[in-house]
Amino acid sequence: MSRRNAQLPWGNRSNSSIYGGSGRGGMGRGIMLGAIVLATLVVGYFLFTRACSGAECDKFYCATDASYATPEGYERVTKIYAYNQEKGAVPGGSNVQVQLKLEEATTDGRNLGFFRYVAESKTWEPVTPAVLDAQGQQVSATLTTAPELLTVLRRLSPAGHVVAYLPHDGRLHADATGKVTIVHTRDFKPNSDGGLTGEPAAIKPDGSFAWYPTIWVDGSEKGLIPLVSGILQNTTTRSTHVQQILKKAQDLQLAGVDVAYMDLPLAERTSFTLFVAELASGLHAQGKKLTLTLPAPLRLPDRIDEGAYDWAELGKSADVLQIWPFRDQSTYRRDMPEILTALTAKVEPTKLVLTVSPYAVEKSNDGIATMSIVQAMIIATKLSVRAGADNRLTTNTNVSVVATNLDREENRSGIAWSPDTASVYFTYQQNGGRTMWIENVFSIGFKLELIPRFKLGGVAVEDASDSALLGNIWPALLPFINSGQPVLMQPNPADLTPTWEVSKGSKEGGSRGVLTWITPAEPGTYTVSITVSDGVARFQNDIPLTVQPKASPTAVATPTAAR
């Protein structure tokens, strides 16, 4: 190139300058240089703002290079996004659909949530749970407000999901506060027109957990299963049911919904799968989640029987699949590993959540039933008395007071630890033989070990309420939640032995379920009490007994000699 053509951007130094003569050339060049600098700044600002929007600033939120400290116990999985001011203010009552790209793709949708940055306190506050897309590339949610700065964090719980089921009017157990990540309240059930009956629980999520109310169906309410079957079998009513659920979720501004359609007949396998696929698609389009509560499959001699539930297909649609408790404790430790082996071969293990229960389980010829630990221990502490032939209790007499359902002299087991089932149990007679298994911190620990073994997505608690009737299993859950590993312990055998007290008199024996009470010398009403334990809590029952004086020997008249 010749020197003549090697011009500076604002021209050469000749009189042909665009600013006129040579006397003004220096000023012209200065003005032109300023214009170039200004243009460069404008272009730089434009490029910066475009970069802040990830090259597309037509969305509500634009990516930035901002950096704020991530709260302890969380990891940031997206960039920090700023609200796009070009969108203007969000009208009151409107929702904002947000989709943010993950910094690294993942298949793990556990414990993801949107957080907003509060400049005044320099902290991140939770906004709503995040829904991971099927490709694992981005997360979405529906926001009711538009925070200035937004990001997505994952809660680093070694246990994964910690799900709490509550009755409609239940209150969360104190030990569960701050530990649970999802709460389900049993609030709704379907009605004949495809709508929902029920009201949302009076629960106010504080941002530390996601609240997904449950639509609950099981065979305990007569006519409900046939009603649901009728809804699912017809394409029109099935879609109507989906739309009604979506409307309820939108009206109540829910972050997600839990569906627990238990006890469905095998004939509904396909229709239920189609229902879940349609519902999941609708909820995900709203930035909401779908969780399913499903009965555990059954282990048969030749296969694992899923019944009406196609786990492989359901796992493609739902975000979380919660395995309802497998009730038969006599086969739990044999069957559940095989069931989980089958399920984890079909469903991403991190989507599967194992449910444990605070309820005792009784097995008899009538089937399997659940009850609270208080109800179970009322059975265990039942007392009776073996009195004399005339059924009278008298002073200074040996009386047998019997724990009717713990009497080892009658071949009852008493309260004991079973290594085969890894639980505390007792056997008794009532319309045939019955076995009662007590769920407590010991048995729960041995169930929790299945979660890391099969790399499951977390744990759920069948009833996480603070009911005084339930045993406290949280001392077993808390170490697992904190570490991801269960604590395996057995009760002290001495703690399972019944103890007795008498208000007066003396006593002998009692460890095998039968106490010998030596009644007092004075007549009156006295109390005999038994205390039993499952190795954790203690339960007492009293029986008042009236002691009567011994009958005096009947006087024999001496005949008088005739005079």
Main traits of this protein?
single chain; 563 residues; alpha/beta; Immunoglobulin-like; TIM Barrel; eight-stranded parallel β-barrel; six-stranded antiparallel β-sheet; 10 helices; 33 strands
Topology summary:
Blueprint: H1 25-52, E1 61-63, E2 74-76, E3 81-83, E4 96-101, E5 112-118, E6 123-129, E7 131-132, E8 138-143, E9 149-155, E10 161-166, E11 182-190, E12 196-197, E13 210-211, E14 214-217, H2 224-233, H3 235-251, E15 256-261, H4 269-285, E16 289-294, E17 298-300, E18 303-305, H5 311-317, E19 320-323, H6 332-344, E20 352-356, E21 360-364, E22 367-371, H7 373-380, E23 383-386, E24 398-403, E25 416-418, E26 423-429, E27 433-438, H8 441-448, H9 450-453, E28 458-461, H10 474-483, E29 499-502, E30 506-509, E31 514-518, E32 524-533, E33 538-547
Parallel strand pairs: 10-11, 10-28, 11-13, 11-14, 14-15, 15-16, 16-19, 19-20, 20-28
Antiparallel strand pairs: 1-3, 2-9, 3-9, 4-8, 5-6, 5-9, 7-8, 11-12, 17-18, 21-22, 21-27, 23-24, 24-31, 25-26, 26-27, 29-32, 30-31, 32-33
Helix pairs in contact: 2-3, 3-4, 4-5, 8-10
Low-confidence stretches: 1-29, 31-54
- Give helix % range: 10-25%
CATH overall fold name of the largest domain: TIM Barrel
Q: What's the level 1 CATH class of the largest domain?
A: Alpha Beta
Alpha carbon gap, first and last residue: 175 Å
How many E-type strands? 33
Strand content: 25-35%
Please identify, by name, the CATH architecture of the largest domain: Alpha-Beta Barrel
- Main structural class: alpha/beta
C-alpha Rg (nearest Å): 36 Å
The overall number of domains is 3
The residue-averaged pLDDT reads 88
Number of helices: 10
Strand order of the largest sheet: 10-11-14-15-16-19-20-28
Largest sheet: 8 strands, parallel, barrel
